[in-house]
């Protein structure tokens, strides 16, 4: 398919695209806001119905920022170690972070706060040629970093036409996705020509990009930045305070994180069986998408569990059986308070899974469902090391949770295995930052080195 035909089809589909946003807004009202950003307009150009425009004091006025694109929640979390490294080594570098979903947008705000003189966040434009031109003309980024795999033809072509280098960071590409790019023919080949460098998570991904036409000199296997997750130094103290406040020291706690529709029923069925063996057990249930919070709350109530919603700020009591963690940015806290964690998005096909490294980073034994194609390489290495276990239904989930409540040797073995895998695979952030360096200017380290030599 030639790109002009792709663009024509995209314009024809425009009404359906925005109708879909409107429909999704029934459950998540944020989808009905900030539509003009999706057409490439800067925030101060937004329509009145999208909310008040920023004041002159806080309107973003970045000069040639580094543009980092993270599609949604998962990519935003994955980007965090890289962004923090960039901000540490290039403190004067303006940074523009874009997402495509309200969930990703909320996570950006939760981590990095509001817009400032050197930071801005907006939705990325849809891949309409005029929207992309408008966006690039306003922001004039010095380079584009795309997290994992989010390749849009018009965006990439117009970026390179303006001399903007493009790096695919923490890149992953399954065999199925690679076949899709091959079937795209000319359009797929054109996409690959726009990539300045691909920082692949694993050798299989690197090989697939080379087969698709990216020169091998531009493909580097750096490993995954997810292994470089830094646990806040205050996390242990914060978790201890909440354990005291909610009287959890004698209670077995487990977390079901990033669950998708259909998985909550499985988790609650397992928890009902867990309660038969440990009546004092507490489940912290963390749905992946905020638009599902109310529905999951109704499900928990309909099944007769005594529950508290985090958003209500009511305390967990001795009678509470389920905490519905309907908040953003607190997952590490819940994990640090637990004895075992299930990572959702993996129990039901087609699944794809989510990040199993977060609980391992805080020393929590970790479970996943059998469907984790999005984390195939990482999970296979964890399984081989004995740092991860697979469950498939409520019964196997129950057995796995109960085993980790009672078997101290198993817990110690899994913690040690997880720590070993994490340590062995760290360093991807430094390697990817090195690939970015030619486009970012002088770093703090370089400046300090130059100053020391001049003395």
UniProtKB/TrEMBL annotation:
Pfam families: Glycos_transf_N
Keyword flag Amino-acid biosynthesis: no
Pathway(s) annotated for this protein in UniProt: Bacterial outer membrane biogenesis; LPS core biosynthesis
Top-level taxon in the UniProt lineage: Bacteria
Domain 3-deoxy-D-manno-octulosonic-acid transferase N-terminal: from-to ranges: 34-228
InterPro entries per the UniProt record, alphabetical: Glycos_transf_N (IPR007507), Glycos_transf_N_sf (IPR038107), Kdotransferase (IPR039901)
Active site: 75
Job description of the protein: Involved in lipopolysaccharide (LPS) biosynthesis. Catalyzes the transfer of 3-deoxy-D-manno-octulosonate (Kdo) residue(s) from CMP-Kdo to lipid IV(A), the tetraacyldisaccharide-1,4'-bisphosphate precursor of lipid A.
Protein name: 3-deoxy-D-manno-octulosonic acid transferase
Lineage, opening ranks: Bacteria, Pseudomonadati, Pseudomonadota, Gammaproteobacteria, Moraxellales
């Amino acid at each position: 398919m030639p790109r002009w035909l792709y663009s024509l089809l995209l314009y024809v589909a425009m009404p359906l695209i925005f109708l879909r946003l409107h429909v999704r807004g029934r459950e998540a009202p944020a989808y009905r806001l900030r539509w003009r950003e999706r057409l490439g307009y800067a925030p101060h150009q937004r329509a009145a119905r999208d909310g008040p425009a920023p004041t002159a004091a806080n309107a973003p006025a970045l000069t040639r920022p580094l543009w980092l694109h993270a599609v949604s929640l998962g990519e935003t979390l994955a980007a965090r170690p890289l962004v923090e490294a960039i901000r540490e080594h290039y403190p004067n570098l303006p940074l523009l972070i874009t997402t495509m979903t309200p969930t990703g947008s909320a996570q950006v705000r939760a981590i990095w706060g509001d817009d400032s003189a050197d930071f801005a966040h907006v939705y990325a434009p849809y891949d309409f040629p005029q929207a992309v031109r408008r966006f690039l003309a306003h922001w004039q980024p010095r380079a584009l970093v795309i997290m994992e795999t989010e390749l849009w033809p018009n965006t990439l072509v117009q970026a390179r036409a303006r001399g903007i280098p493009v790096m695919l960071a923490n890149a992953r590409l399954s065999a199925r996705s690679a076949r899709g790019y091959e079937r795209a023919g000319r359009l797929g080949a054109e996409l690959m020509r726009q990539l300045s460098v691909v920082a692949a998570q694993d050798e299989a991904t690197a090989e697939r990009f080379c087969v698709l036409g990216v020169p091998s000199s531009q493909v580097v296997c750096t490993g995954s930045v997810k292994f470089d997750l830094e646990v806040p130094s205050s996390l242990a103290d914060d978790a201890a305070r909440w354990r005291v406040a909610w009287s959890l020291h004698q209670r077995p706690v487990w977390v079901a994180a990033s669950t998708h529709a259909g998985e909550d029923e499985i988790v609650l069925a397992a928890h009902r069986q867990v309660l038969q063996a440990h009546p004092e057990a507490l489940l912290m249930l963390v749905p992946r998408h905020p638009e599902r919070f109310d529905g999951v709350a109704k499900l928990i109530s309909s099944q007769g569990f005594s529950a508290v919603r985090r958003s209500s700020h009511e305390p967990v009591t001795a009678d509470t059986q389920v905490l519905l963690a309907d908040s953003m940015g607190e997952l590490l806290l819940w994990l640090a308070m637990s004895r075992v964690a299930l990572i959702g998005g993996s129990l039901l096909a087609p699944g794809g899974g989510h990040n199993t490294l977060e609980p391992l980073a805080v020393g929590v034994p970790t479970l996943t469902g059998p469907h984790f194609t999005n984390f195939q390489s990482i999970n296979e290495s964890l399984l081989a090391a004995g740092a991860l276990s697979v469950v498939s239904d409520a019964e196997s989930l129950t057995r796995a949770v109960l085993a980790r409540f009672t078997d101290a040797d198993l817990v110690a073995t899994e913690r040690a295995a997880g720590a070993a895998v994490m340590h062995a695979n760290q360093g991807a952030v430094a390697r990817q930052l090195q690939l970015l360096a030619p486009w970012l200017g002088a770093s703090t380290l370089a400046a300090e080195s130059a100053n020391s030599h001049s003395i």
